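Predict the 3D structure for this chain.
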Amino acid sequence: MAELTSVLTSSSSDEEILFALRQGAGIAQAMASTITDWSFSGAVSGQYRADLSVNDAVLGAFSGFGCGVLSEESGVTGVVPATPSDLGEGLVIVVDPIDGSTNASRGIPWFATALCAVDQYGPRVAVVAQLCAPYVEYVAIRGKGAWRNGVALTARTERPMAESVIGVSGPPPDVRPWWQFRALGSAALDLCLVAEGALDGYLDCDTHGVWDYLASLLICQEAGVQMADAFGRELCHFSHTERRTPVAARGGANLQALCDLRKSSF
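Done. Predicted structure below.
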């Protein structure tokens, strides 16, 4: 696959940015399909050699864009300011090359690449692409909508918490006001399930880096899902070391209930 060379700025069209992100996701899919070595890198706890291989391929494709990149595996490349509001005409792509690496290493088909282009106003274009069959792709463009494999995602009715199925990351609390829960192992994809209505909400029982959820944040918002940090912090940031506790739900009542539960249970 040829390298992308078009320069991307905040003046670029949504279509140009989406094309670039899709190309990056395609490179990640092609790389992931060839990986046989799922040993740990030894550099960072929990990091696989495959994470680095896919990361290098995706960042190589993005190298001609002239914009900053914030990646889980390699940190900051290019110009990445402290906050999105400092971007001016710049653009930053937030990259998680493989979200759900442990799933991938064990042959569990639930892992994805998550890419989000951010301008001075926040997340602008997002792609979450499953890296194994059936290769489901979620896309969002700020103010224009969200799609699953080209089909628009629309707002759905909020279920009562007692009838809800909630996605979780990490050990769930002892108090569980929902009907059922699922711990699937990829925050990016789990949140997209909330966007499409397969899950009614999501509760992070641990913490996550911005690359884990930022693309899904835009997808959720454009699909009518509310999302917040359980402790009231800004979800969109450019720190490689800070962590957040993302919570999502289809309505304000369930979102508040999940935030309150997270704050009181851990």
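The first strand starts at residue 68 and ends at 71.
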